[in-house]
Amino acid sequence: MVTEDLSRKPDLAHVRRETGVIRESLGYRVFRVVNVTVLLLVCAVTLYPFVNLVAKAFSSEGHIAAGEVNLVPRGFNFDTFQVVFADELFWTNYANTVLYTIVGTAIAMAITSTYAYALSKPHLKGRTFFVGIAVFTMFFSGGLIPNYILIASYLGWRNSILAVVVPGALSVFNLLVMKSFFENFPTELEEAAAIDGLTTYGIFFRIVLPLSKAVLATMTLFYAVGHWNSWFSAFLYMDDKSLFPVTVYLRNLIAAATGTQEITDGGEAAQVASNIQAVTMLLTVLPIICLYPFIQRYFVSGVMLGSVKG
Is the pTM of this model over 0.85? Predict the structure, then answer.
């Protein structure tokens, strides 16, 4: 019989782990305080422009011109919302933005997911070549003028939705993240599905995609936000106001307000334009803000799963 050595000192670290009591060091406490303080400052700096925008949207023009609006609305004013709501061009451009975002995101996700899945297979012939083509475009481009000639003249896409959604249909960063995710996908599942008689397309659509919700949701958010905020392509390739997205409407509004302010030297017209800018920007960013909480839970996991190859 082996007797227990009572003279042996207990392992305090083990006892603390077992009891759930962990004594924090002074350095760690200081780190936590500094970390929380920095994050709160970053949060405040990030949220201030948006809160200020909301305050201006509900404030009167006089208070905005006087610089009295910071975080709290001054002189509640809903007339500007009525002016914006009554503008048919605003709603037409808003509908265009929704259409461009949905179509552009669908095309981008179809191209990115299929391309990434093909590149994730080591046995693909010419795999290095196709990866190199994609990566090459991250560092070199044809330039603005050749792109304009190609899209407007040779392809004839001027005043077309294709000019907005096709040129940016593939993000190489998103492609590489999704490729890494598919490389970590369990091959046993695909082999079992192949034994059951599924083709390559069947495996991709019925097995791989349903189990890739995290990375798909993350990439969808990336593409959707990019298309929603995009304005330069439409500004460059479209001259019909009824085809503009709402971002171009907002850009023209800001440009007009800047010109009005220079002419009137801060007069009443410039004050009204400043208030309309705030209302329009608020209505523009509101859908993304409402959508983000439903996708946020996939965001971190999707990026981490696709960026680290284990």
Answer: no
